[in-house]
Write a structure and sequence with these properties.
Layout (H helix, E strand, L loop, with lengths): L1 E5 L3 H12 L4 E6 L12 E13 L4 H11 L5 E5 L4 H4 L15 E13 L2 E5 L3 H10 L14 E2 L3 H16 L5 E10 L6 H11 L4 E7 L2 E7 L2 E6 L2 E5 L1 E6 L4 H13 L1 H19 L8 E10 L3 E11 L6 H8 L7 E2 L1 H12 L9 E5 L5 E4 L4 E5 L4 E10 L5 H20 L1
Length: 423
């Protein structure tokens, strides 16, 4: 059944719906946080409870996803792709220690789907009235006081600086010319209330591709500002981010920071290298000659940072399946480097911890053939069973990079998550 209603207090409704969905075994919430986007299909979307699920490791994950999609051709599918699915595409990567124990791919067909656009809510469910009543009766509260989270760095600052310099030497040797070097922060025996933490994170750092995802006792709490890949009709859209500047509380200084980012030769060089990589990836799925850069070096402002974002589009070829289009571009070029395969190989050696869902993607397939997937950055991953909590941050390293400044950029990107956990 489909039911439509108007929502007056949208923010209250979204929070109640989040808390309701988090009580179910499987749930996914996407929130654009009122950012305008010509390619968005909704302002907010919630998928809850599972009619069917797919949970799998590297091996036949993409083939299994195609089968699930074929079995449910007129249904919504929501799910995530771990960064480590790269091993299914290029089988040259050694295994790493994995404390999170997330599946490499998880998708589900929701029993209840709620879509909000300009104050109008559409509910697709066998029992829409019951869903609305349950949300209305949900109380918003933190379940209990939690002990302080003791966050540890997987590598020290000194080791980070040493490795960043070693990467610069790899670039000097011509093995790569740009990469995304990431580091993990983690906590063991961590007790958090995931819905409350996401609620706080989404308030502290509202972003256009924010997402709360629950798969049993595994949680992704994401404040992602980046679109990986979307399909609208026969058009593919990718919007890689490369280029970061801190915000300032003072308007004049904030504008200066923004202008400095916009005119930075270094940041433009990093951005255009990834744009070229994405153009190459899209070519594998595109009608010949249809790949275009719609916007180069666009500057967009978020609560903690200004970002340089470019938009690349292409017309999808008739013989390319939606999942193949994802495969042809996965993982997101902004999180790998170039050349893509060699950069991934080197980072697996230098980083020392498994990225898991970080640098992967969360998204949906809609019944009309469209899809939209984010890049999992600025995100907290949590295994409630073993109480392991993890978040990665990274920055682009080129030969011109200053390792000290790259380290500071990592801390800046982690600031919202650290603020929420420490509060």
């Amino acid at each position: 059944m489909v039911k439509e209603v108007s929502i007056t207090n949208i923010e209250l409704f979204k929070r109640k719906a989040l808390y309701w969905a988090s009580s179910l075994n499987t749930a996914c919430v996407f929130d654009s946080n009122n950012f305008t986007d010509p390619y968005s299909k909704f302002d907010w979307l919630l998928a809850a409870d599972a009619e069917a699920t797919l949970e799998t490791k590297v091996g036949t994950a993409f083939t299994d996803l195609k089968s699930l999609k074929k079995q449910h051709p007129n249904k919504w599918l929501t799910g995530f792709l771990s960064y480590d699915l790269k091993n299914e595409l290029e089988d040259f990567f050694p295994k790493q220690t994995d404390e999170l124990e997330f599946p490499d791919l998880f998708f589900f067909v929701p029993k209840h789907l709620l879509r909000l656009k300009k104050g109008r809510l559409k509910i697709i469910s066998a029992e829409p009235e019951a869903v609305l009543a349950a949300i209305d009766q949900t109380e918003i509260f933190q379940t209990e006081s939690k002990p302080e989270i003791q966050i540890k760095a997987r590598i020290s600052k000194e080791i980070y600086l040493e490795k960043a310099e070693q990467i610069r030497q790899q670039i000097k040797l011509g093995n790569i010319y740009i990469t995304n070097f990431c580091q993990e922060f983690y906590a063991e025996n961590a007790e958090i209330d995931p819905k409350f933490v996401f609620d706080q994170l989404n308030s502290v750092s509202p972003t256009p591709f924010a997402c709360f995802f629950k798969a049993g006792n595994k949680y992704i709490l994401s404040a992602s500002p980046e679109r990986f890949l979307a399909k609208r009709g026969n058009k593919l859209i990718s919007q890689p981010i490369k280029g970061t500047a801190a915000r300032s509380n003072f308007a004049q200084q904030d504008q200066h920071q923004k202008n400095t980012l916009k005119n930075s030769i270094k940041e433009q060089a990093e951005n255009v290298m990834i744009v070229d990589l994405v153009r190459n990836d899209l070519t594998k799925s595109a009608v010949f000659g249809s790949v275009k850069v719609e916007e180069l070096f666009g500057i967009y402002s978020f609560k903690q940072v200004h970002q340089m974002i470019s938009t690349i589009t292409a017309e999808i070829s008739d013989d390319v399946d939606s999942i193949d289009a994802l495969i042809n571009t996965f993982p997101a070029g902004s999180m790998t480097g170039a050349p893509k395969f060699r950069a991934m190989q080197l980072m697996q050696q230098f980083e020392g911890s498994k990225r898991s869902i970080y640098a992967g993607s969360i998204g949906y397939f809609s019944p009309d053939g469209d899809f939209d997937f984010n890049v999992v950055i600025r995100s907290l991953l949590y295994n409630a069973e073993n109480q392991y909590l993890s978040f990665h941050v990274g920055s682009a390293v080129t030969f011109q990079s200053n390792p000290e400044l790259e380290y500071e950029e990592c801390l800046l990107k982690a600031s919202a998550i650290r603020q929420v956990l420490n509060s």
